[in-house]
Design a protein that fits this description.
The chain has 207 residues and is an all-alpha fold. The protein has helices at 2-29, 33-52, 59-66, 70-76, 80-104, 112-126, 132-142, 144-159, 162-165, 168-186, 193-202. GO terms for molecular function: DNA-binding transcription factor activity; transcription cis-regulatory region binding.
Length: 207
């Protein structure tokens, strides 16, 4: 009887240890809650900025849209300005990474940066619920420091590829996609994006 009791106790202890290890492993595999909350807050701020304007990006509105308390937002971002600064940094980093990623998938070196720039800008038009460029513009228009930071980051990225993209035709193609993007944002042009994209990309091919 005593042996059986000890066996049951030993088995129970072993089962508890296995259960604890399982819970610990699951905890490591689950996304960290603070990271999820921070991401939700940045996404909510971006959506409000694009849809309603920067003046409506308030601490209360962002917290409510993200499904957290006002105190929860302030735990991650001490003020509205800190939130906007973090959003701008997040957007510009993602924008640069997408351009770089699109460049890596290309085989022709001439115009490699310009094609990636055009494709990334066009994706902001054709893919629903993206609009990172629109959010960047909303933020940059209201803040001279953000405008300078965006210009500096993009100029640095472009100059790194002067050997492949320092051509007036490529510059014109980039200017054109900027103009088309703006026309689409304000609804002043009805040309199909895919037709425009193909024409602009053709300008970046070496002939």
């Amino acid at each position: 009887m005593i042996c059986r009791a000890r066996q049951r106790a030993s088995h129970g202890a072993f089962t508890n240890q296995v259960a604890k290890r399982h819970l610990m492993n699951n905890a490591h595999q689950r996304p960290k809650e603070p990271a999820r909350v921070r991401r939700a807050l940045l996404d909510a701020a971006q959506q409000i900025a694009v849809a309603q304007g920067l003046q409506n990006v308030t601490v209360q509105a962002v917290a409510q849209a993200a499904g957290v308390t006002k105190g929860g937002l302030l735990h991650h971002f001490a003020s509205k300005q800190r939130l906007l600064d973090a959003l701008f940094a997040d957007l510009i980093e993602a924008y640069e990474q997408e351009i770089t990623s699109r460049m890596a998938s290309q085989t022709q070196t001439y115009g490699v940066f310009s094609r990636a720039y055009i494709e990334t800008t066009m994706a902001d038009i054709t893919e629903p619920n993206r609009h990172p460029r629109a959010a960047l513009c909303v933020l940059a228009i209201s803040d001279a420091g953000m405008r300078k930071l965006w210009a500096d980051r993009m100029n640095t990225l472009r100059r790194a590829h002067d050997d492949t993209d320092d051509d007036i035709q490529l510059a014109i193609a980039r200017f054109a996609v900027d103009g088309y993007w703006l026309a689409q944002m304000i609804g002043s042009d009805e040309r199909a994006p895919e037709i425009v994209r193909k024409h602009l990309i053709s300008l970046t091919r070496f002939s």
